[in-house]
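Fill in residues.
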C-alpha cells in the first residue's frame, strides 16, 4: 500500500499551523540570543503546537458518516487521533520542561517559580491542571497500566473535556490573538458534544450500516 498524505492530513497540518503562524510575530526568533532565548522560544512553540494537537485530536473524534473518507478510512482516522493525542502530551511536557530550564541560568529559584509560581498565578496552575487531566485520560491508552476495561476507559476519556477547558483557560489569557484558540476550542469541544449527543439524537443514523461501523471502531 502506498503511503502519502491524505486530504484530511493536509487540512489538519494547516489547522495546526494557524495558531503558531498567528503567534510568530510575538514569539519572534531567538537568533543569537543564547540558550535561554532558544529554550524559551522552543518551550512556547511546543506549548502552542501541543495544545493545538489536543484540540485537533478532539475534533477528529467527530462521528459523522463519511467524515473518515478524507483521512483514508476509519482505522486510519483512529490512528491519526491516537498519534495527535500522543504528540500533544509529549509537546506539552517539553513546553513545561523547556520553560523551566530557561530559568536555570538566572537561578534555580527562578526556574522553580517559572513552573510553580505563587497560588495567585492561576493561569499557570490551570495549565498544570490541564496536564494532570491529560495524564489521567491518556496514560491508560498507551498500555502503561495494562489493558483497561472498555466501559471504564470510555468514562475515563471524558476527562479530556476537562483537559481542553482547562487548557483554554491557560492559553487564552496568554495569547496575543485569541481567535485561533476560540476557533479550535469550539471545533474540538463541539465534536465531543456531537459525539456524545449523536446516539440520542441521531435517530435514522443509528440504523445505517456505516453508523454501525463507526460504533464498532470508535468509542461511544
Amino acid at each position: 500500500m502506498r503511503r502519502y498524505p491524505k486530504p484530511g492530513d493536509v487540512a489538519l497540518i494547516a489547522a495546526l499551523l494557524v495558531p503558531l503562524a498567528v503567534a510568530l510575530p510575538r514569539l519572534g526568533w531567538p537568533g543569537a540570543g543564547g540558550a535561554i532565548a532558544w529554550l524559551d522560544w522552543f518551550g512556547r512553540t511546543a506549548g502552542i503546537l501541543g495544545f493545538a494537537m489536543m484540540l485537533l485530536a478532539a475534533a477528529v473524534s467527530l462521528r459523522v458518516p463519511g467524515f473518515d473518507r478524507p483521512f483514508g478510512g476509519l482505522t486510519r482516522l483512529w490512528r491519526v487521533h491516537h498519534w495527535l493525542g500522543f504528540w500533544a502530551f509529549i509537546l506539552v511536557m517539553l513546553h513545561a520542561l523547556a520553560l523551566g530550564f530557561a530559568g536555570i541560568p538566572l537561578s534555580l529559584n527562578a526556574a522553580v517559580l517559572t513552573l510553580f509560581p505563587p497560588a495567585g498565578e492561576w493561569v499557570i496552575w490551570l495549565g498544570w491542571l490541564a496536564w494532570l487531566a491529560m495524564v489521567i485520560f491518556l496514560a491508560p491508552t498507551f498500555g502503561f497500566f495494562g489493558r483497561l476495561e472498555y466501559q471504564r476507559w470510555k468514562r475515563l476519556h471524558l476527562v479530556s473535556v476537562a483537559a481542553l477547558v482547562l487548557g483554554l483557560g491557560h492559553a487564552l489569557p496568554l495569547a496575543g490573538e485569541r481567535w485561533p484558540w476560540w476557533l479550535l476550542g469550539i471545533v474540538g469541544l463541539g465534536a465531543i458534544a456531537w459525539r456524545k449527543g449523536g446516539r440520542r439524537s441521531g435517530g435514522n443514523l443509528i440504523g445505517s450500516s456505516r453508523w454501525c461501523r463507526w460504533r464498532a471502531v470508535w468509542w461511544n
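Residues 201-220 have pLDDT under 50 and may be disordered.
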